[in-house]
Amino acid sequence: MTEDLRICFIGDSFVQGIGDPEHRGWVGRVLEATGRDITAFNLGIRRNTSEDVLRRCWREVLPRTLSGADNRLVVSFGSNDMTEENGTVRVGAARCLENLASVLDEGRCRAVTPLVVGPPPVVGVGAGHLTRTAELADAMGALCRERHVPFVPTTRLLADDPVWTREALAGDGAHPGGGGYRRLAALVLAGPWQRWIARSPS
After folding, report:
1. DSSP assignment letter at 199
2. Residue 13's closest CA among 90, 99, 77, 96?
3. Chain centroid, CA 100 distance in Å
4. Do residues 152 and 117 make contact, with C-beta atoms less than 8 angstroms apart?
5. DSSP string, 60-112
6. Taking CA atoms, which of 41, 68, 92, 131 is between 20 and 30 Å from 82?
């Protein structure tokens, strides 16, 4: 009998793959490289913050899970939370971390195995946003370690990546093209992804 491995990817425009002319983003590239029979669902929505993701997470994820299947959830948000609007960030770091903890704790209760991909940098909005996002990513990583959840850091690595920054600045200042998404996919694949995907369901 074929294993029923189901993965929902939920988050923001980086999860959605905005800017990629091939419409694959990092999610499609990671799935392609994994080489497994996976039922995958891309639930990324542009401009979503952690508040938005928390609000919609389980009503979108649960219909895509199946009793007896190996149900997984990849979560990625935070870049939009750290964006300033009218002089204040959209969602404070403490609240963003609470939202992440809520998603992870609910996932444990529902036997959905999580992995978290840290927030990519938005290179076109200045150093302040990068500092806030990098500090948030560090705190996310610590929270995930406390809960024994795999975490993929991306913020500083992509901020220093010439392909990511060049493509983002050539576009809307935030989203790269195919090359940038390949770099992000490579970070995911080089991180805990392979161990996580090979793990037997709890």
Report:
1. S
2. 77
3. 11
4. yes
5. HHGGG--TTSEEEEEEE--TTTT-EETTEESS-HHHHHHHHHHHHHHHHHTT-
6. 41
Token pair of 144 as six digits: 């995930």
**Do residues 150 and 113 lie in contact, with contact meaning Cβ atoms separated by under 8 Å?**
no
Strands (DSSP E) contained in the chain are 5-11, 38-44, 70-76, 84-85, 88-89, 113-117, 151-152
Locate tokens 């990092």: which residue? Answer: 26
Q: Decide: 41 and 8 in contact? Cβ < 8 Å.
A: yes
Token digits of residue 57: 């997470």
Greatest extent of the chain over all pairs of C-alpha atoms, in Å:
56
Specify whether the backbone of 86 is left (phi greater than 0), alpha (psi in -120 to 50) or beta.
Answer: left
Domains and CATH numbers, the chain: 5-198 (3.40.50.1110)
